[in-house]
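Worked Example 4.2. Consider the chain below.
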Amino acid sequence: MPTAALPLPARASLAQPAAAAEPMRRIRYQGLSLGSHFQPIFSVAHGRAVGYEGLIRAWHDDGRLESPATLLAMPSDGKACLELDRSCRTLHVHNFARQDSGQAWLFLNLNSQYLVSERPDIGFTRNLLHSAGIAAQRLVIEIIESEVRDQDQLRRFIHYFRELGCLIAIDDFGAGHSNFDRIWDLQPDIVKIDRRMIQDASGSRRVERILNGLVSLLHEAGSLVVVEGVETEHEALLAIAANADMVQGFYFARPQPRIGEPPGVAERFASLLRGQQWQNVKRRADLQHYSREAEGLFRQAVADFTLHRQFGQSCSRLLADPRAVRCYLLDEAGYQVSPNVYAPHYQQQLNARFAPLLCGDNANWSHRHYHYQALKQPGVVQVSQPYLSVADSRLCITLSQTVRALGRLHVFCCDLDWQEQ
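Applying the procedure from the previous section yields the following structure tokens:
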């Protein structure tokens, strides 16, 4: 490791260590002592830290801690902000290099707005990595995409960092005015989802579904996903259920000057994965329990229709169940060949705002799982996962089964209202 003084911008100077054994370096900045803390970022699959985010800490001479927000507000103009930004990155890189971190990444927040506005020498990072002895592929440059207005200039900087060998991460995605077009445009290697989303998901099944969909969409875009701000076991389970690749937060580890994992972290991840498996089993059991009684009535309705060919009459007992919403009949190609037959108690709840979608005449549902699964397993009752019905924009589950009538194969369907707790 290099032993020479840190290459620092002009306005910062190295502070002398308090003792000869002090392994971590600090710098002086406007009367404050600045040092590095590192927060681990854990791979869910590996159950260990695969990266560390460098975070700045500032102390007064009497030992009082100053907030990072106050520190970052001290520079008077864009140039001074860039100098402080560089000082912090220099500090983190050299403190990271002084420790045994294996092959882990170093995540560094880069104030991209200052880079764009000041248009500095982009060789700074290359020289910094060289002086610290860190390979470029171990550096993850974090960018808050909503900060940047000059997209073309930012794109050129990202191209440079990629050519250098660094990875690119979008930070705080999902907060403020985050745009998916930036994801398509910048093609980040990693996207860090803002901590507000996991907090909101912990209290709302609706936000939980949005989180799941967001992670899936980011994966489709080719980005790995980190869920930030995980502070409770419940939030950790939600992040794992959403299929996040990595997690970061106080539940796993707080930022510390020295790089290292807390004891028992592998066992904690193993326990979380077991808990997630149990949650999946419980949800399947809840679904089966909810649909079991209605499933018996559904079988009777299918049998009655097979015998008498009177669809509306065959549905009457089934639609008396308080969970039942509507019944309808599809042909083998997925076209709806019967009108919707609604449960009397549900008829009063129909929302006129969705009138253009309420009529199922000539609708084709061949793309729905309940149709193709029924055709895949003829004669077996299928119970769908909860989904949003286009007919009334409410969550439902669908029971479906193939039935042969008038010499042709049909799929008998019944939607059940799904009320999430």
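Confidence is low (pLDDT under 50) at residues 1-22. The radius of gyration is 29 Å. Compare this with Example 4.1 before moving on.
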